[in-house]
Task: structure prediction
Amino acid sequence: MSITRRAAIGASLGALAASPFLAAPAVRAQAPVELTFNYPIAVGGPIARIIDGYCDDFQKANPGIRIRQVYTGSYQDSITKALTAARGGDAPDMACLLSTDMFTLIDEDVVVPWDGLPGAETSWMGSFYPGFMENSRTGGKTWGIPFQRSTIVMYYNKEAFKAAGLNPEVAPASWAEQVEFAQKLTRRSGDTVSQWGMQIPSSGFPYWLFQALTTQNDVRLMNEAGNQTFYADPKVAEALQYWLDLAQKHKVHPTGIVEWGTTPRDFFERKVAMIWTTTGNLTNIKTNAPFEFGVAQLAAGRKPGSPTGGGNLYVFKSASEAKRAAAVKFARFLTEPERAAQWGIDTGYVATSPEAWETAKMKDYVAAFPAAAVARDQLRHAVAELSTHENQRVTKALNDGLQAVLTGRSQPQPAMAAAQAEAERILRRYRG
Result:
């Protein structure tokens, strides 16, 4: 080929390379949006595998978004890590944190409301059970989307009921019946108790279990604005006296502090016949109880009731517009009725929308295992879990008072008065 011919071809190729139509293949594909998602469990275990599966499925359906899930330990560890990261300029984009963390996250100015985010229609945000939204909305805005939610329910050993001459299909319906049943179920030889009648955990989340008793005694622990508590109400001390009397007067409940984490195991090992714990333990108990068990709504005092509990989904303020849009897509994916139904079946947490309970898979599950619907049915009596501004400090004041009473260092009325004084000192400035 002649030099002239080569030059002509080179010039042509150079011109073509400069063409905008041929430059396109050299442009890199847009990088996917990476969404950092903090989730409150330790690494490993069945729930981690479920969440991993959800993330994989979402990414397959949304190839332009990548989820980087970070398992952050307990709820307490998770809020601490999220706030520390936010203060250091490295906040997650989205996190599952306690519904009761809402006021803390707002006060720290690290989250944004879901209202107005791309794809967060009012119809979607209004599709969840109202009982769960009490801890998800304030000031006319939606700050959390219900996901890993629960109530407290009673689990009881049907074999122990039969042995005690009780109908294994009927749980106690009132505080008085609860004592009567527990007395029949307590097995004692001298000073040695081989089986307690009942057990209400008082470590980990004592305020939450106690709030079931206060709700049943027809008193609320805080106002909707989260800037006032009512710990000193006489009905609060009365509810605490009932809890104390189970151990001290009726002797059907262990004395001192009852561990949250070991309560299901105590139940499996027949050390206790009736326990209160989260519906989130349903699948665990269904899998591991070596006997037939029942699940029931909590016994009523002046009225029936339980607080809701568990985690909501939050979007952090530092997330870019693209990440906020991705967070909405992911939250909607996680809360789709079919997926929410399967989540409830796999974990025992309450599927958070009525539509999830209308799916064929959930209807079939409830037909075969009616206990699964107990927590849902109890929602009509549920109240918002204790949540205020500076929630950890305000809750600690109550927990300290509860533990002082349950360990014999104080009596209900003065302990609750002291807890209220501390809460008032903290919250006064939030009332303008």
The radius of gyration is 27 Å. The chain has two domains: 33-150+309-383, 151-306+387-431. The domain at 151-306+387-431 is CATH 3.40.190.10 (D-Maltodextrin-Binding Protein; domain 2). Confidence is low (pLDDT under 50) at residues 1-27.
